[in-house]
């Protein structure tokens, strides 16, 4: 089976976000594989181990992402592709990423493509579905179970806490939701083997793409942090008075009713 | 000796020679693989070990065995075992990083360390081909667990005074071992023990003893102050039948194995202490940020900040020292030719070359850890005394580190002795350097220290080395061969040497980092270096003064004190201000950062 995983390098979940010059400051920050993409990688490995085949993990970014690709290889992926856009693309959005990935995949005849349900940074959840659209294949998002039997695929999908069971056929793109599996840590032998696995680096040129072809369709107007959490307030006095005060506060201060 | 080996830095030579910063290994030199290995270890500890820690603390050791097997599956037991025996044969930096990250698991890290270190390494380094093939694959996966049995009720620091005996049976097929080995880590579940016994009551030798051999049993579980997650029992040998081929090394050469393994045990403890101290500092800063008194988080008080900065600066010096030392082993081993690189005895030799550094790391790092957990409890206040708080366990777990693998006192006493031996054997030109210094002191002029980056620290390190030579030289002159009876003086010398190694390691690391990425990105490192060098130098001055006064009299005393005054002349930095600055970054990050 020809399996592809779409992976994004994101901020470590424990990093504090600092904004400088209208951008999130990346100086000295730790980066990780987007946790939802880790589920995708783990699932890909399990599918491959059961049905055979090869896993290629792909990312669009700069050379810093090599580290996360190596981690994916250490977990068990077979090959990695870094599409390095550092020199070519200034503003990048979900359209840009999806277009580049689809262009790369169009002649690769994928059987199964796995991606995270969302990235914990941008959180758009769009790249996976967009790639499927561009390739003209089916997709199912937020999956929590995947069974493949010949060409038939049975999927459990998380729908806001409920479950939906879907049957589909290959080729297919799925995006992973929490609960799909428990991602493994790269073992030490895995880490050592990863050094020798192929990691291909491509640029837009190699995909016959021009800058204009992938120009972002959206524009970031402003980047700001959520308001600082204020200390809570405990209301005092008779219950009836407290209720009155609460309603007043909800109207005047919080302005939610 | 080939040319390449001559080019290697000699053990202990830091005291009389300067190395350029490019020559030292620093944590900034970790490769991506190193970082991945560290991360896997950390995730294993956090996700698999810590959730079970309470059970482990209650001596549910079937869980320890299971966890060790899990660690084996991840490759966390095979770093030091060569590939041909089922291990990974990784570099020493990797195995050091595993030890550092494992430390957070408290007592379990002692189980792990005893298995991969002192338990397995005697076979890795000194085993015959048959012994390696028989034991190592199972040890590398965790299918079998190893332990190390040296200490006896009557012989601790005096290891060679062991009473356990071994006697070849009449058939000449088996050794019969009799005796008791005390406080054996992993004894509750270990399958393989490396045991020391005296053949015919005389020749100190090592044996591989399996738990299932007739006459082998273990005592009851000890009740310990800390590291309760590790099993500690007596190993009892009553006419234990050990096949002849399980003799490890040669008869009467057990001390070679014991001392080499001790070197490794010592530097590994130093690394574990770094990991433990980082964690203790992290939870303490987090606590101080959240705990309010007088309507203020206690981390806002400058006295708390002073403690954070002191802990972190000392930790920085420790971390720099231990990884510098591992880098020395690595450099030396990488210059062995292929055949020698596979010879355990050559590997042991590469480590033994740095026995001085191993001892220095052992006592300096374990005292850093003990200092950090102590202040950690202090900052936690009454809560730090309560078992619900992690720092309480860290405090108890820390204490043993100053005692095992040679007490810190023994390790201190060893340092001047090893130097003396190196000088007599002509390995280090200590005497020549000391004579040179005497001449230099006669006409010593105070040096103008520039105000460039690290210039003051370089000056302090330079002069500290001179002070060490001065003091050690005077002591050797006065007492001659009787110097080994003057334990207080020996320990003062060891402390001076230790501070020099730590100062210089911090200095070289910071210098290397600044060369690579500039001052701006290495401010925290610079602050730690400035703070630590100042405080260590103050200690050196005090130790030197005390020693000179004990060694000299009359006019010579006055002359030497005046020389010391010249060597210590400098304008101290404002440590209080530097500490506030360093603390601000720590409080912001809520963990040890560099």
Describe this structure in words.
Chain A: Keywords: Electron transport, Transport. Chain A: Heterodimer of an alpha and a beta subunit. Chain A: Pfam families: ETF. Chain A: This is Electron transfer flavoprotein subunit beta. Chain A: Belongs to the ETF beta-subunit/FixA family. The complex is a heterodimer of chains A (257) and B (594). Chain A is an alpha/beta fold. In chain A, 27% of the residues lie in helices and 28% in strands. Chain A is built from 6 helices and 13 strands. In chain A, the strands form 3 sheets. In chain A, strands 11-10-9-12-8-1-6-7-13 form a 9-stranded mixed sheet, sandwiched between helices. In chain A, helix 3 packs across helix 4 (127-135). Chain A is globular. The model of chain A has no long low-confidence stretch (mean pLDDT 93). Chain B is an alpha+beta fold and 594 residues long. Chain B has 4 domains: 27-144, Butyryl-Coa Dehydrogenase, subunit A, domain 1; 147-251, Butyryl-CoA Dehydrogenase, subunit A, domain 2 (Beta Barrel), CATH 2.40.110.10; 254-408, Butyryl-CoA Dehydrogenase, subunit A, domain 3, CATH 1.20.140.10; 426-589, Butyryl-CoA Dehydrogenase, subunit A, domain 3 (Up-down Bundle). In chain B, strands 1, 2, 3, 4, 5, 6, 7 and 8 form an 8-stranded mixed sheet that branches. A two-stranded antiparallel sheet of chain B has the order 9-10. In chain B, helix 9 runs antiparallel to helix 10 (302-334), helix 10 (302-334) packs antiparallel against helix 13 (355-380) and helix 13 runs antiparallel to helix 15 (408-424). Classes of the chains: A alpha/beta (257), B alpha+beta (594). Chain A binds chain B through residues 28, 66-67, 70-71, 74, 185-192, 195, and chain B through 32-33, 35-37, 39-40, 43-44, 73-76, 78-79, 88, 90, 94, 521.
């Amino acid at each position: 089976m020809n399996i592809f995983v779409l992976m994004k390098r994101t901020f470590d979940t424990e990093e504090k976000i600092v904004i400088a010059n209208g951008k999130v400051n990346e100086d000295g920050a730790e980066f990780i594989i987007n946790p939802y993409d880790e589920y995708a990688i783990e699932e890909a490995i399990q599918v491959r181990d059961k049905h055979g085949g090869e896993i290629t993990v792909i990312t669009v970014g700069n050379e810093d992402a090599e580290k996360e690709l190596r981690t994916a290889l250490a977990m068990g992926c077979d090959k990695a592709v870094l599409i390095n856009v550092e020199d070519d693309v200034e503003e990048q959005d979900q359209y840009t990423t999806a277009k580049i990935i689809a262009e790369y995949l169009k002649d690769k005849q994928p059987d199964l493509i796995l991606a995270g349900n969302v990235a914990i940074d941008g959180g758009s959840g769009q790249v996976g579905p967009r790639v499927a659209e561009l390739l003209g294949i089916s997709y199912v998002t937020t999956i929590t179970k995947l069974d493949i039997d010949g060409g038939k695929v049975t999927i459990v999908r998380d729908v806001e806490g409920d479950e939906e069971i879907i049957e589909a056929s290959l080729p297919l793109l799925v995006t992973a939701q929490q609960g799909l599996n428990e991602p493994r840590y790269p073992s030490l032998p895995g880490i050592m083997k990863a050094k020798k696995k192929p990691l291909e680096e491509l640029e837009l040129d190699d995909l016959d793409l021009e800058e204009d072809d992938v120009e972002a369709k959206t524009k970031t107007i402003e980047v700001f942090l959520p308001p600082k959490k204020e200390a809570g307030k405990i209301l005092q006095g008779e219950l009836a008075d407290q209720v009155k005060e609460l309603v007043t506060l909800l109207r005047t201060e919080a302005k939610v009713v | 000796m080939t040319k390449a080996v001559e080019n290697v830095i000699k053990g202990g030579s830091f005291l009389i020679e300067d190395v350029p910063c490019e020559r030292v290994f620093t944590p900034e030199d970790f490769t991506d693989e190193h970082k991945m290995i560290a991360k896997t270890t950390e995730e294993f500890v956090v996700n698999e070990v810590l959730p079970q820690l309470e059970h482990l603390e209650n001596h549910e050791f079937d869980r320890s065995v299971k966890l060790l097997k899990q660690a084996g599956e991840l490759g966390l037991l095979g770093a030091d075992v060569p590939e041909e025996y089922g291990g990974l044969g990784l570099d020493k930096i990797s195995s050091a990083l595993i030890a550092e990250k494992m430390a957070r698991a408290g007592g379990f890290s002692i189980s792990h360390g005893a298995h991969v270190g002192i338990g397995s390494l005697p076979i890795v380094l000194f085993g015959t081909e048959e012994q390696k093939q028989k034991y190592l694959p199972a040890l590398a996966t965790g299918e079998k667990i190893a332990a190390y049995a040296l200490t006896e009720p009557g012989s601790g620091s005096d290891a060679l005074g062991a009473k356990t005996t071994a006697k070849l049976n009449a058939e000449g097929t088996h050794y019969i071992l009799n005796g008791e080995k005390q406080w054996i880590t992993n004894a509750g579940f270990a399958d393989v023990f490396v045991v020391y016994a005296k053949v015919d009551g005389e020749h100190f030798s090592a044996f591989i003893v399996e738990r299932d051999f007739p006459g082998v049993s273990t005592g009851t579980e000890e009740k310990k102050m800390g590291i309760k997650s590790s099993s500690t029992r007596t190993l009892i040998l009553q006419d234990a039948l050990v096949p002849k081929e399980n003799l490890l090394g040669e008869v009467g050469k057990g001390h070679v194995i014991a001392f080499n393994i001790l070197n490794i045990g010592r530097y590994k403890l130093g690394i574990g202490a770094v990991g433990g101290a980082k964690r203790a500092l992290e939870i303490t800063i987090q606590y101080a940020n959240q705990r309010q008194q007088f309507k203020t988080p206690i981390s806002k008080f400058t006295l708390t900040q002073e403690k954070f900065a002191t802990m972190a600066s000392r930790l920085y010096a420790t971390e720099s020292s231990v990884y510098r030392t591992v880098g020395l082993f690595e450099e030396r081993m990488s210059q062995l030719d292929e055949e020698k690189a596979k010879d355990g005895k050559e590997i042991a030799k590469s480590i033994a070359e740095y026995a001085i550094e191993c001892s220095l790391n052992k006592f300096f790092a374990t005292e850093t850890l003990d200092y950090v957990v102590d202040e950690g409890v202090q900052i936690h206040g009454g809560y730090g005394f309560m078992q619900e708080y992690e720092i309480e366990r860290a405090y108890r777990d820390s204490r043993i580190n100053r005692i095992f693998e040679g007490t810190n006192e023994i390790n201190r006493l060893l340092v001047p002795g090893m130097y003396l031996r190196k000088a007599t054997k002509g390995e280090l030109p200590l005497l020549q350097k000391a004579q040179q210094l005497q001449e230099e002191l006669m006409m010593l002029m105070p040096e103008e220290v520039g105000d460039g980056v690290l210039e003051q620290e370089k000056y302090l390190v330079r002069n500290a080395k001179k002070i060490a030579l001065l003091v050690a030289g005077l002591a050797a002159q006065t007492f001659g061969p009787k110097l080994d009876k003057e334990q207080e003086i020996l320990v003062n010398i060891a402390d001076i040497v230790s501070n020099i190694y730590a100062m210089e390691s911090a200095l070289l690391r910071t210098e290397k980092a600044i060369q690579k990425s500039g001052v701006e990105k290495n401010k925290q490192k610079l602050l730690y270096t400035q703070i630590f060098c100042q405080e260590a130098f103050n200690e050196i001055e005090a130790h030197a003064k005390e020693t000179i006064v004990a060694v000299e009299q009359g006019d010579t005393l006055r002359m030497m004190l005046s020389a010391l005054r010249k060597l210590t002349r400098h304008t101290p930095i404002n440590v209080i201000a530097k500490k506030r600055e360093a603390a601000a970054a720590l409080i912001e990050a809520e963990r040890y950062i560099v």
